[in-house]
């Protein structure tokens, strides 16, 4: 017989995990306090289980999946760094958790101060002039930035039509552009994997609203023509948007606002070590240059002018694009990011980025002989290799990725960016030790050797995971959506 998997199957009638104390009032007297129509007539059907079994059930579920506290997670572009538990401690302080977002302002001076200061740190990291903490994901930050772009152009008499996005861009870039009412024009990367000024020159016209550029780009390469490109874009009256998902390579090294970017989103769950939660509450702050400040979402956190004055929520902003989220965004993640920044300080943040770059380059060097490297230059915090050589022997990038799971590693991002065939996008992050990187490289090389001797074995992988290879097409095409209640 199979082990039961659902907590309901583990239930036995009469088992109690946590007995409740006897009440002084008998049950029937209590019942009288609840009007008849609100009383439950059927059984609650809750599982009956001991505390120990309950613990094992949930811990068992948590280790079935892969997560950053369990093993290496080199998922390119996602910056799956370790999330320091000190951040959690700060976010759980009762002064923060007990606060209601509609409480009178004078009772939330500390939280406002924290938001204001976090914005000041983001200004320093980005070199931009004003921050909104309101968006709740990188992608929502993009939409916010593009609505600001729209408002800016509308004020100048023409909202314009196009957003330029490179062929290496994350899918959210063109998606956000569409949501903001724009069409996208795809820009080709050159043979070095970056954007040439000439390509921008040829694509831009008076209907271009903005260029969206990820820097370093999704190949892990620094867009070294950025200053020239920004000059061209600004010359055409358009804006330069930076997708800041890869900011983990730049903190304390480059201020994007000082090299031509007008708008940038931060992914707090990437760069600033707040948790990535299964699509759950994220944070995607946006920074802008001075000329775009007035369009930021309301409210912004401002300080009353003068020394020693407190902060307030400023709603008096007639040119604002409006709200992007209820209240002020995901506040608990702001606390976590604040704790992270305060723990490391400016020098520490620079070291984070330096070590992220060193780790990626070390891993790239370890894998260099075994895999095709489409771009050979020094990388930033991530790099892309191709499993082309292995595919010729019968093991695709997907097969190799699945085989990695057997050895306790999460797979890298596969088949992205789209311009590299059989792509593996690897981002080790600064929080991994040299030993982990070497073990990972060794495993990946061993798997590649399996492609020489036994490619069929790779085609069936994984073998040691709670479920074997899933039919991913079926999962997308035949969704089994179950509504209860
Ligand atoms: C992660 C990512 C995004 C989207 O950010 P979310 O916070 O997941 O919405 C956009 N662009 C790039 C390059 C990314 O890596």
The bound ligands are: pyridoxal-5'-phosphate
Silhouette: globular
How much beta, percentage-wise? 5-15%
Q: Structural class from helices and strands?
A: alpha/beta
**CA distance, first residue to last residue:** 31 Å
Q: Give the radius of gyration.
A: 26 Å
Total of domains: 3
**H and E order:** HHHHHEHEHEHEHEEEEEHEHHEEHHH
CATH class of the largest domain: Alpha Beta
Uncertain runs: none
Q: Write the CATH fold name of the largest domain.
A: Aspartate Aminotransferase, domain 2
What do we call the CATH homologous superfamily of the largest domain?
Type I PLP-dependent aspartate aminotransferase-like (Major domain)
Major beta sheet summary? 7 strands, mixed
Strand order of the largest sheet: 1-7-6-5-4-2-3
CATH structural architecture of the largest domain: 3-Layer(aba) Sandwich
Count of individual beta strands: 12
Please report the number of helical segments: 15
- Helix percentage: 25-40%
Q: Overall mean pLDDT score?
A: 94
Write structural notes for this entry.
- This protein has 485 residues and is of the alpha/beta class.
- The chain has 15 helices and twelve strands.
- The strands form three sheets. A seven-stranded mixed beta sheet has the order 1-7-6-5-4-2-3, with helices on both faces. Strands 10-12-11 form a three-stranded antiparallel beta sheet, covered by helices on one side. It has a two-stranded antiparallel sheet with strand order 8-9.
- It is globular.
- The site of pyridoxal-5'-phosphate (PLP) has 14 residues, from helix 6.
């Amino acid at each position: 017989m199979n082990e039961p998997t659902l907590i309901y199957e583990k239930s036995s009638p009469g088992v109690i995990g946590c007995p409740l104390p006897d009440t002084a009032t008998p049950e029937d007297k209590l019942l009288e306090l609840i009007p008849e129509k609100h009383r439950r007539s059927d059984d609650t059907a809750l599982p009956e289980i001991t505390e120990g079994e309950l613990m094992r059930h949930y811990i068992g579920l948590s280790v079935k999946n892969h997560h950053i506290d369990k093993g290496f997670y080199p998922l390119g572009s996602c910056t799956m760094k370790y999330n320091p538990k000190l951040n959690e401690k700060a976010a759980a302080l009762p002064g923060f958790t007990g606060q209601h977002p509609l409480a009178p302002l004078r009772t939330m001076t500390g939280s406002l101060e924290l938001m204001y200061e976090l914005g000041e740190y983001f200004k320093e990291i980005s070199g931009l002039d004003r921050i909104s903490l309101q968006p709740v994901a990188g992608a929502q930050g993009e939409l916010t930035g593009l609505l600001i772009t729209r408002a800016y152009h509308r004020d100048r008499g023409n909202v314009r039509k196009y957003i330029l996005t490179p062929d290496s861009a994350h899918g959210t870039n063109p998606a956000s552009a569409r949501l903001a009412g724009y069409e996208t024009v795809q820009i080709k990367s050159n043979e070095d994997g970056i954007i040439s000024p000439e390509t921008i020159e040829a694509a831009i016209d008076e209907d271009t609203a903005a260029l969206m550029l990820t820097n370093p780009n999704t190949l892990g390469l620094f867009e070294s023509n950025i200053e020239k490109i920004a000059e061209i874009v600004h010359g055409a009256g358009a804006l330069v948007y930076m997708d800041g998902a890869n900011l983990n390579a730049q903190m304390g090294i480059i201020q994007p606002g000082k090299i031509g970017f007008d708008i940038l989103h931060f992914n707090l769950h990437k760069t600033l070590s707040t948790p990535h939660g299964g699509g759950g509450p994220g944070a995607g702050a946006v920074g802008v240059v001075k000329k775009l400040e007035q369009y930021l979402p309301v409210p912004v956190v401002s300080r009353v002018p003068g020394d020693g004055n407190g902060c307030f929520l400023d709603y008096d902003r007639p040119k604002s694009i409006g709200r992007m989220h209820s209240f002020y965004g995901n506040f608990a993640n702001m606390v976590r990011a604040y704790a992270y920044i305060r723990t490391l300080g400016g020098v520490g943040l620079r070291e984070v980025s330096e070590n992220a770059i060193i780790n990626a380059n070390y891993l790239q060097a370890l894998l260099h002989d075994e895999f095709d490297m489409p771009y050979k230059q020094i990388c930033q915090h991530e790099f892309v290799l191709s499993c082309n050589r292995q595919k010729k022997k019968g093991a695709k990038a997907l097969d190799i990725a699945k085989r990695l799971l057997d050895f306790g590693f999460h797979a890298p991002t596969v088949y992205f960016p789209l311009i590299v065939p059989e792509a593996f996008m690897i981002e080790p992050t600064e929080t991994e030790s040299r030993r982990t990187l070497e073990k990972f490289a060794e495993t990946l090389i061993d798997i590649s050797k399996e492609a020489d001797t036994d490619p069929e074995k790779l085609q069936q992988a994984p073998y040691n995971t709670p479920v074997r290879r899933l039919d991913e097409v079926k999962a997308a095409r035949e969704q089994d959506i179950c509504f209860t209640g």
